[in-house]
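Figure 3 (text version): structure tokens given as input.
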């Protein structure tokens, strides 16, 4: 889950550093056909989100005056979902307490249900540009061509790679149109990120639609989806993401995420299924099923990660297969002061350096994709329920 997702990387690193070497000859042992190429393909998938326009789009939530920077009720829930990873993580699944609390807070914020529109009427049809005098986004009443009547347009500018702040003097990198498609009790927002200018559009870097519905009042369940594509101008990554949360009126909500990603060149298909169950406010179990398919080879990670909030304890029990045949395991327990999580071949032998590298990239990829999902869902976080 996103609150936990960044620990994919931490977990992989910790496991690689404590890779064990022994041989118990317990059964068939799979091997990666080309671990170096697997690493390269995984890195290509994660690099799709590096275009200047997409980077500028990702930073909109930090920009003063941005129409997607104000927190809203549904934003509180989307901010708590597993498609929004934490900024940092000091150890595997260290943010479990914060995530569980965020879910409870969001459930309370949704007591009034969902509104019939996403974009506030006060900004419909407006185009927002950067004002160097006030150092913030402001509406431009003379913008041509005008923004969609049922949406809002934001001009994107180059941002500082460290702080995410708009660099002055501003340099336009593209623009984003946010189009309100809400009907009834379903909030829906189409997001289109383009290079170029509104008068002369360039490459389309993203085009997708986010929807969200709430059940009950006070809210007992929540569902959200995002469907569309992201591109860097050379490669295109299509995706279909779904998130649901239940038991929102309790102190132990449960949640689930299902995401599929398909890269066109090279052909790589990624599927991620995570389920978070919380029997009480102090314990959580994350069930993981993550696979990457390249050609005739499918590498799959399955298992559980169990979290105890206090005293902080994380236990991993994960298996990795290649085309259904055991390849490696990641098992062990980490606490605030120790970490004995280990990675080894299924037969107990040591992983090669290329295999370790591929394993680390395999665990970094969900982190990269969910970081991108954070940016993709951001307009919904800030606008839904406004």
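Below: residues designed for each position.
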């Amino acid at each position: 889950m996103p609150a936990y997702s960044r620990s994919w990387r931490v977990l992989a690193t910790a496991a690689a550093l404590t890779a064990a070497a022994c041989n118990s000859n317990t059964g068939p042992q799979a091997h990666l056909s080309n671990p170096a190429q697997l690493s390269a393909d995984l890195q290509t998938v994660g690099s799709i989100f590096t275009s200047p326009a997409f980077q500028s789009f990702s930073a909109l939530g930090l920009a003063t005056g941005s129409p997607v920077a104000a927190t809203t009720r549904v934003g509180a829930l989307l901010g708590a979902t597993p498609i929004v990873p934490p900024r940092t993580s000091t150890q595997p699944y260290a943010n479990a307490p914060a995530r569980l609390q965020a879910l409870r807070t969001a459930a309370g914020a949704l007591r009034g249900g969902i509104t019939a529109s996403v974009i506030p009427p006060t900004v419909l049809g407006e185009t927002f540009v950067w004002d160097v005098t006030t150092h913030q986004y402001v509406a431009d009443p003379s913008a041509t061509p005008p923004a969609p009547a049922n949406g809002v347009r934001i001009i994107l500018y180059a941002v500082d790679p460290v702080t995410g702040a708009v660099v002055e003097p501003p340099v336009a990198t593209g623009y984003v149109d946010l189009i309100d498609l809400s009907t009834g009790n379903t909030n829906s927002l189409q997001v289109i990120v383009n290079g170029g200018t509104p008068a002369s559009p360039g490459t389309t870097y993203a085009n997708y639609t986010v929807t969200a519905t709430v059940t009950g009042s006070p809210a007992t369940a929540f569902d959200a989806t995002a469907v569309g594509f992201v591109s860097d101008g050379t490669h295109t990554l299509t995706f279909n993401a779904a998130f649901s949360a239940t038991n929102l009126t309790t102190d132990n909500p449960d949640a689930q995420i299902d995401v599929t990603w398909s890269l066109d060149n090279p052909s790589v298909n990624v599927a991620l299924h995570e389920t978070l169950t919380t029997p009480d406010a102090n314990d959580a179990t994350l069930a993981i099923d993550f696979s990457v398919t390249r050609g005739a080879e499918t590498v799959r990670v399955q298992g559980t990660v169990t979290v105890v909030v206090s005293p902080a304890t994380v236990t991993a029990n994960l298996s990795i297969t290649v085309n259904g045949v055991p390849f490696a395991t990641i098992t062990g327990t980490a606490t605030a002061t120790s970490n004995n999580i280990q990675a080894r071949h299924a037969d107990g032998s040591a992983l090669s350096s290329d295999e370790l590298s591929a394993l680390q990239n395999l665990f970094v990829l969900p982190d990269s994709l969910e970081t991108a999902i954070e940016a993709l869902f951001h307009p919904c976080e800030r606008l839904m329920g406004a």
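The chain has seven helices and 15 strands.
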